[in-house]
Automatic annotation (TrEMBL), chains A, B:
Residues 1-88 form the HTH arsR-type domain. Signal peptide: none annotated. NCBIfam families: HTH_metalloreg. This is ArsR family transcriptional regulator. PROSITE patterns: HTH_ARSR_2. It comes from Hyphomonas polymorpha PS728. SMART domains: HTH_ARSR (SM00418). The keyword Nucleotidyltransferase does not apply.
Length: 98, 98
DNA sequence: CTGCTAATTAGCAATTATGCTAATCTCTGG
DNA sequence: CCAGAGATTAGCATAATTGCTAATTAGCAG
């Protein structure tokens, strides 16, 4: 649901994870290494993001590759813009405001 | 801080408050009346939004008028779009909104 | 000052989030 | 099978959030 997305975005470490993934898919351990927090802690943050469907996981043999789920992030941004009462300007969103 | 903004957005009641305020400024009691939760509870949600500077409060005699702080909400939306790696081009935001 | 309405703050219980260490799982390679 | 790396899950303690009722503040009218 939408709510889990915003709750997932509420933690700075998770937003930073998304920022890292923005540049391309990365392995779990690779991501965890960028943070001060312990590996299990980062693993949990990744799980929260996955639960909100903000990221997807794919096993690559021994390791796990994460990537951003762009459309869900887009939906969240669109929801915020909707709160502004302004049109998004996104290609596939047409408003019916008169 | 940016973080308090996303934390404030994490609760559905607070996003709904913003949605109500999107259409124009409203009195605290007027807003509280729209929710099932008790008035003090809504008052606290308003305080969280104010703390994040997503809204501003203005006394009108006996009552308090709240309004959305558009720029902070814009910043949050922009931050999300930034996570998408796409350019939002809102330097000006003078796009003809409808 | 008293009383009244609008709204916030205090205090409390219950739930949820965070972050650690230890234990477990999954896969690869001998 | 066993050993090891990569990663998650379990369990626990602490902190933060949520939402209530009761108490309090702020302003207005008499």
């Amino acid at each position: 649901m939408e709510n889990s997305v915003f709750k997932a975005l509420a933690h700075p470490a998770r937003r930073q994870l998304l920022a890292l993934l923005r540049k391309g898919p990365r392995l779990a351990g690779d991501l965890a290494a960028e943070f001060e927090a312990s590996w299990p802690t980062m693993s949990r943050h990744l799980a929260v993001l996955k639960e909100a469907e903000l990221i997807t996981a794919e096993r690559q043999g021994n390791q796990i590759l994460y990537r951003v789920n762009t459309s869900v992030l887009e939906d969240a941004a669109t929801a915020l813009l909707g709160l502004l009462g302004r049109d998004n300007g996104d290609d596939d969103l047409k408003e019916a405001a008169e």
